[in-house]
Amino acid sequence: MKAIVLTQKNKYPEYTTFNIKENYEYKEKIKIQASALNHRDLWIIKGLYAGIKYPIILGSDGMGLYREKKVLINPGQYWGENEKVQSKNFKILGLPDHGTMADYVYTDKQFIYDVPTHLTDTEAASLPLGCLTAYRALFVKGEAKKGEKILISGIGGGVALFVLQFANAIGMEIYVTSSSDEKIEKAISLGAKGGVNYNNKNWEKQLIEISAGIDLIIDSASGEGFKKFLNIINPGGKIVIYGGTRGKINELIPQIIFWKQITISGTTMGSDRDFKTMLKFVEEHKIHPIIDSVYKMEDQENAFKRMESGKQFGKIVLINPGQ
After folding, report:
1. DSSP letters along 69-94, please?
2. Cα angle 233-195-126, degrees, rounded to a multiple of 5
3. Of residues 48, 72, 45, the one with CA closest to residue 301
4. What is the mean pLDDT of each run of 10 residues along the chain (323 residues)?
5. How far is CA 278 from CA 68, 82, 160, 177, 254, in A?
6. Domain extents for the chain?
7. Which of 75, 106, 181, 308 satisfies CB 3.0 to 4.6 Å to 60 for a cystine?
8. What local confidence, expressed as pLDDT, does residue 222 receive?
9. Which residues contact 15 (CB under 8 A, 6 or more apart)?
10. What is the DSSP letter of 253?
């Protein structure tokens, strides 16, 4: 079959013929119609992910045909019985197991779900990893409620945009940050009340002025700017972290954290229950994923370059030949 295969560090994967041999004969076979990129794929290419092996077919997001029915695959597999945290057996599709950027993907039947009926193939392919992460961050860890004020950092990425759409669906007051004024304006057009450019001096003061304080922060970056969240967050507020693209968090003042009764939580992906309830929410609220761009599978290098540029607003999708 044809697949997007990574063979070495710091080199874009190749679209080539690849034969899967080991340990897949007892799994279910799904014919992939479309797949989507995540920053996880880019980090694997750069060697910035644990347990990397070569060769590996990338891709955690995918929509395909299984027994003549359109399906999605839950990429977060073997979560375990504890809803609070993943088990030692937890793994994500696309490493260590071969992923969705191929003619076919192989997975266990328990991870196969029907596609929400209102979605196009392209929209469906973009859903699994980012949407699951967003759902758990917002509702399970963030315990989001109608009327609360939420700040979403780094708007434009897939997870952040899913958080925006979910928050908008339940009637939250939404604010965003970005290094791009254009992305902030796009977010406002999708339901955000306002936003600030974090490259501006004293951006946190600007945010406090327009919001009068935030109840819930969903953050993908961490890094030096994180400490400013302690001034932005209201007493009793929550901060949920699902990424660390800007590195370590330094100079947190513990007195602010305990005096304001702030809760800081981390989250990764989600459980099987989270995936099911996420799909139900998407179906009920008719959520349509924001698509940045669509590429043919053989044009995958340009798709990765698009993601690496940081200019995307929404999901980057790959279409299999003939689809």
Report:
1. EEEEE-SEE---S-TTS--TT-EETT
2. 100
3. 45
4. 95 94 81 97 93 95 96 97 97 96 95 97 97 98 98 95 98 97 97 96 95 96 90 97 87 94 97 98 98 96 96 96 66
5. 24, 18, 15, 25, 34
6. 2-127+289-319, 132-266
7. 75
8. 87
9. 2, 3, 4, 5, 297, 298, 300
10. -
pLDDT confidence of residue 315: 97
Sign of the torsion formed by the C-alpha atoms of 206, 211, 212 and 218 = negative
CA distance 103 to 123: 18
Here the tokens at position 185 are 């304006």
Q: Nearest-5° angle of CA 204, CA 200, CA 315?
A: 90
Cα distances (Å, whole numbers) of residue 138 to 51, 65, 94, 161, 318: 28, 30, 25, 12, 27
DSSP β-bridge partners for residue 318: 35, 295
The side-by-side arrangement of strands in the sheet containing 2-6 is 14-17, 2-6, 56-57
Strand partners, 64: 32, 71
Q: Which option is the CATH number for 132-266: 3.30.70.1350, 1.10.3730.10, 3.40.50.720, 3.30.479.10?
A: 3.40.50.720
Contact yes or no for 105/132 (Cβ under 8 A): no
Alpha-carbon distance of 277 to 274, in angstroms, equals: 5
Structure tokens that stand for 41 in this block: 């794929």
Using an 8 Å Cβ cutoff, are 32 and 2 in contact? no
- Whether 148 contacts 172, CB under 8 Å: yes
The yes or no reply on domain 2-127+289-319 and CATH 3.50.50.60 is: no
Query: pLDDT at position 50, please?
Result: 87
132: which 2 tokens?
């699951």
Q: What is the crossing angle of helices 272-285 and 128-135, to 10°?
A: 100
- Determine contact, residues 239/229, Cβ cutoff 8 Å: yes
Contact (CB, 8 A) for 288 and 259: no
